[in-house]
Amino acid sequence: MTEEAIKHILIPEHVKISKEEKTALLEKYSITEKELPKISKNDMAIRHLDAIPGDVIKITRTSPTAGKIAFYRGVSNE
Predict the structure, then answer these.
(1) For 4-61, how does the pLDDT look when each residue is reduced to its tens digit (9 = 90+)?
(2) How many angstroms separate the CA atoms of 17 and 19, rounded?
(3) Cβ contact 49:59 at 8 Å
(4) Total structural domains in the chain?
(5) Strand, coil or helix: what is 29?
(6) 53: CATH
(7) Which of 21, 34, 35, 73 gives 17 a disulfide partner, CB atoms 3.0 to 4.6 angstroms apart?
(8) How many helices (H) and strands (E) does the chain have?
(9) What torsion, rounded to 10 degrees, do the Cα atoms 50, 1, 23, 34 define?
(10) CA dihedral 39, 9, 61, 33 (to 10 degrees)
């Protein structure tokens, strides 16, 4: 995916969070990594992040009613 495509208005921002942020996220919601929704390490939206299984991706979307909202996905081999 090209740099232009990654910044396209219809593709939400994808960011790999740090291990500290991951730990805080899991503690905040009292969940395990396995309980996060998954995103494939081969997904075109995250290929440029060099994500590996075990990483967590923060996806920031813009909603007309809620403003900016973050979703989290655990990286998987699938």
Answers:
(1) 555 666 689 999 999 999 999 999 999 999 999 999 999 989 988 999 999 999 999 9
(2) 7
(3) no
(4) 1
(5) coil
(6) 3.90.940.20
(7) 21
(8) 2, 4
(9) -100
(10) 20
